[in-house]
Amino acid sequence: MTGATGASIGIRLLEELRDQPEIETHLVMSRWARATIEMETGHTAREVATLADVTHGPQDQAASISSGSFRTHGMVIAPCSAKTLAAIRAGYGSDLIARAADVTLKEQRRLVLVARETPLSTIHLENMLALSRMGATILPPMPAFYNRPTSVDDIVDHIVARVMDQFDLDSPRAVRWNGPVTARATAQQP
Length: 190
What we know:
Elements: H1 7-18, E1 26-28, H2 31-40, H3 45-49, E2 54-56, E3 74-80, H4 82-90, H5 96-106, E4 110-115, H6 122-133, E5 137-138, H7 152-165, H8 183-188
Parallel strand pairs: 1-2, 3-4, 4-5
Helix pairs in contact: 1-7, 4-5, 4-6
């Protein structure tokens, strides 16, 4: 998790993954992620850390996830700041988040970046395009309106379900598109 706004996305993802017993989660929170968590949510960074199986310090370059020999299914950065996006694109592994993302790319594992910035500058777009070409999935937290969200939680649930889809994991909170439903068709259903 980085310091970009949208800490609730990372928290909800950890909550969902905790319910997947075959998944071991490793969490890295940047210094600003810790601050954002406390500004945006009712959680403390310490509480969020308990949602993961393993927590690493953001400067711990000796952490297991900093090596390609440590096998993973992939990595999600949620939320992902524009600063982190730039560091990953440049291969500038100055902290554990960027280093682990670099390892994920070099090992050709799934890297999902929930990029949080608006509006997007040409620099942001070029960084996203370059990372997409390198194999990363760029998954900005854009709401789906077809599922008629009524709360921020509904939007967060949808984004988390889309992230989990990238790893073929089911989310019990996912609302799936089933095509347009007309009032007439709805009235005819039992």
